[in-house]
Amino acid sequence: MIHNRSTLAASAAHEVALDCLEAAVDAAAPTAATKSAVSRDGETLTIAGTTYELAEYTDVIVIGGGKAVGGVTRALESMLGDSLSGGHILSKQAVDTQTVQSSMGDHPLPSDKNVAATTEILETVDEADTDTLILFVLTGGASALLSAPAGDLTLNDLQTTTDRLLSGGVPITEINAVRKHLSDLKGGQIARRAAPATVAGVLVSDVVGNDLSTIGSGPSVPDETTYGDAIDVFERYGLAPPPAVHDHLEAGQDGRRPETPFPDDSVFDRVTNHLIADNATALDAAAAVAREASYEPLVLTSRLRGEACEVAKPLVAIAEEATATGTPVEPPAVLLAGGETTVTVRGDGGQGGPNQEFVLSGALAHDGDAVIAAVDTDGEDGSSDVAGAIADTSIIEDRERARDALLANDAGSHLSELEATVETGPTGTNVNDVIVLVVPEATE
Q1: Which keywords fit this entry according to its UniProt record (predicted)?
Q2: Domains of the chain
Q3: Positions of the chain with pLDDT under 50
Q4: Is the dihedral of CA 252, 256, 260, 265 positive or negative?
């Protein structure tokens, strides 16, 4: 999986870190996750414990979007066979599906391709009736891929807004509160359009805490945010929305546009959402690999968030504490964490992403011999084409230059020169970031 593994495997501790990263991504692979959560026995389809009698429906369709939608859809096609009528999915990568139509879109900024494919998906939803079972597959990346500008908004309005929010270091939950109110499908609106069909959401989480309304901006989930909340996001972070977006949000706040459906809305009467994989799935697999290698694993959290360069410092401090006192775990040990950190871009910025900033900041701050590794499970860290990085303190020979790179948001360039970036290519899954700190024995 890691294309440049031979270059990165500088020690036994590096090998363990790389093994943990690969196991984490493998465990969250959409095909494996689907087969673990979905099964069929005759005409009974079971999704995470909920049963659907296929014979009760005239049409069974699969729709959805996201970076991992292809693997989930292929697994569903294999199970459903001739019972599947069709459908349409949208992914960043080409997907070889048989019955379900597959389109490619752009990420992280939406494009004309996204809008065109999303329009076709919504037309499929609009045709559903009481005899239709919709399997709605939603994974990380769907917020950008599934794009349907609301009202008089344009694609350019969505692109500009998304770019400003991402560059402003706004957490994904708050970005999605805005997205929901600029869209004709997000924030429960696909459930509104699908009613009275039966909708079974099949979700792979890429958000901290697994808030279903945040995954892909919650198209099939009730929305408790409002137009006023979306306006507050811009004010809180000192950002200015495009004029058309400002006018659209104000119209909603003033009651001139309908709100997204709240939890008590009847459109959710025949909607059930099922979570089939998340960050904890990946961390549990990494912990198992560490244990097999005779390292004591300790999962610190699957809810990590904050500025990547700052979040790294307390985590490497825990590694130092483990080495010095055996607390909270006795070395040799592997500390694991997951979540989604952010980067506030300063100036023009440079190359890299949150995981590369985490590793470089951690290596600069660490007073010990731990190996620090971090990747985005989708294989693309921020806007870069690498998954993340792996390093220990010995790799930082010019500390001043490393600090300058970090301050310029150019951690990727610096780590690339040091041959410390992790290259996987797109993995086909997305359950946030995985961080591995391998703490060797003092004599290792």
Answers
A1: Kinase, Transferase
A2: 5-18+295-439 (3.40.1480.10), 29-148+183-225+260-277 (3.40.50.10180)
A3: 444
A4: positive
